[in-house]
Each structure stands twice: as structure tokens, then as C-alpha cells.
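User: Here's a chain of 150 residues. Predict its fold as C-alpha cells.
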Amino acid sequence: MQPQIAKAAVIAAAIVVCIGNSFVFADDLFVFRDDYFWACGSGGWNSTCWSSTEGGAPTLYPPQSLSDRAFLYNSGATDIGVTISALPSSESGTLIINATGTGSMSLSIAGGYLGTADEKIGTSGTGTINQFGGSNGVIGAITVGPQGIY
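Assistant: Prediction complete.
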């Protein structure tokens, strides 16, 4: 486990707030810093295929912080696949994978390391994670929706 993720896990495990008769856990209080949207066709995760806005130009490298959110969205007819195949590693607070068009959206982990706070796959469309190598470290939950595949 990478030091940043281990540190976040310890902090998250230690923070619980009591409000009335209810408990609010740390992940409900997490404040996200930056959003990253996949902005290319199929390609490698570590490329400059990320944008700060949905539908924006691909000018950014991938998210590198547990306070960032990564969105792999596809509303078109073409299948899009994103691959993590080697280091450097990457971190993201929330990873969301959804395709709402007739094309698919998938993430393949073939090598390297992806660390996230939580992952939502196919929660409002279709989405897939294929892992056949590397590591996928998730601090919180992996939510697989009715049209998601892990």
C-alpha cells in the first residue's frame, strides 16, 4: 500500500462524527478538489487524455490525489477502453465509469497501481473494470451498478 493511501485510510478510519442519533462517516465528509474527465478515445490512463470539464479538450495528466475525482464517461456509439499498464501509479478519490450511449466504457488494469477512495461502475449506465494484472487499491467501497461489470 502506498504511503498516501495508508495515511488516508488511517485518517478515514479515525474520523466519525455523531450528529443526534446518527453517525456520519469520514467518506461522507470528504471534500473533492479537482474533477478529471476522460477526453480521448481508447488510450493509456497515464496520457494527457484528461480534461477538467466533461467534453473538454484533453490537456491534463491523470488525477494524482485522493481528493480528485476521475470520470470515465462515454455517451457516444464508439467503444472506449482506458488501460493502466505500467507505473507511474495514480490515485483518485472517486472513480466513476459509465456509458450512456450505445458504445461501452471500460478500464483495464494490466499493470501498475491505481488507488482510489471508492469506485462506482455502471451505476448510471454501463461500465466495466477488467483486472488481469497490477493492483487496484480501494479504501472504501466498490459499487457495481445493475449494468456494471468487475
